[in-house]
Amino acid sequence: MTGTPPTRLWGGRFAGGPADALARLSVSVHFDWRLAPYDLLASRAHARVLHRAGLLSEDEAHRVLVALDDLAGEVEAGEFRPTPDDEDVHTALERGLLERLGDLGGKLRAGRSRNDQIATDLRMCLRDHVRRIVAELADLCGALIGQSREHVDTPAPGMTHLQHAQPVLFAHQLLAHVQAFLRDIDRLRDWDVRAAVCPLGSGALAGSALPLDPAAVAAELGFDRPAANSIDAVSDRDFAAEFLFVAALIGVHLSRLGEEVVLWSSQEFGWIELDDAYSTGSSIMPQKK
Question: What angle, 0 to 180 degrees and rounded to 10, lies between the N-to-C axes of helices 36-52 and 89-101?
Fold first, then answer.
């Protein structure tokens, strides 16, 4: 602990700080620091809505947005990092604002809670990563389709239990994997419809009496709509559980393809040969690839 009291986003009724054991138990910044870019995006949107509501002056809003941009640059460059005293990503970033703006940095607390912040940050993070996953899956499908076009007349034994069963085309075998990955893409797109709900504005659980504009914030952050129920918005993690299921299924489909590549490139099959750039060897058996 440093000599300066740590930044806390709670504690108004407390006469003293938490015990060291409780403070260590409460720390999550080593997990949620990866959400910092999304938290900063949400803070920009919140600053603008506070300004439109008359809760930040034109000058204050400008100073806050400039400080958020500066802080975002330092986070991206690795120049601003959480300290051992920071409880979570929200605490760390508020400390950064307070260092730049003094008391003005604390005005962003108005009308929001860590409950709606973390729910919003996590949705933004997952939606961002899902777009990258979909792009990678689409590239993989394109590569498999490209290979299949080169083997539209290449016969191959269709197998069950690794026994020759019925003749097929090698292109047909490759395209079977494409179908699985296309279903994965479809599931992720369907998932995004339900994930595109913005919790920001829900506060701790009952919204805020301040004249905020959840619909405008949702639109600025790329969501389709604000949450319909504030209690559900801050407690809902269905979207995370759904994502984990789809991600696990993608892993199964990638494993199926990987296992076939292993078989096809073996000496027993000899159907394909991996490029050296995508192969490894053995430290004791030089013939292996």
Answer: 60
What are the chain's domains?
23-110 (1.10.275.10), 116-214+228-278 (1.20.200.10)
Classify residue 88 as exposed, middle or buried by CB count within 10 Å of its CB (0-12, 13-18, 19+).
buried
If one counts every other C-beta atom within 10 angstroms of the C-beta of residue 145, the result is 13
Residue 253 a catalytic site member: no
Q: Residue 232's closest CA among 262, 264, 268, 207?
A: 207
Catalytic residue among 62, 202, 282, 283: 282
What residues contact residue 134 under an 8 Å CB cut-off, 6+ apart? 185, 188, 189
| C-alpha triplet 21, 23, 26: angle, nearest 5° | 110
Residue of 161, 202, 208, 255 with catalytic role: 161
d(CA 241, CA 236) in angstroms, rounded, equals 10
Sequence-distant contacts of 57-62: CB under 8 A, at least 24 apart: 60/104, 60/107
Residue 278 burial (C-beta neighbours within 10 Å; 0-12, 13-18, 19+): exposed
Q: Known catalytic residue: 282?
A: yes
Task: Write out the DSSP string of 113-130.
Answer: -HHHHHHHHHHHHHHHHH
User: Which pLDDT score, from 0 to 100, does residue 223 have?
Assistant: 98
pTM for the full predicted model? 0.90
Q: Are 204 and 113 in contact (CB under 8 A)?
A: yes
User: Is residue 40 within 8 Å of 221, Cβ to Cβ?
Assistant: no
Averaged pLDDT of the chain = 94
The answer to whether the beta carbons of residues 42 and 121 sit under 8 Å apart is yes
The sign one gets for the Cα dihedral 118, 124, 128, 133 is positive
**pLDDT per position as a tens digit, 128-156:** 999 999 999 999 999 999 999 999 999 99
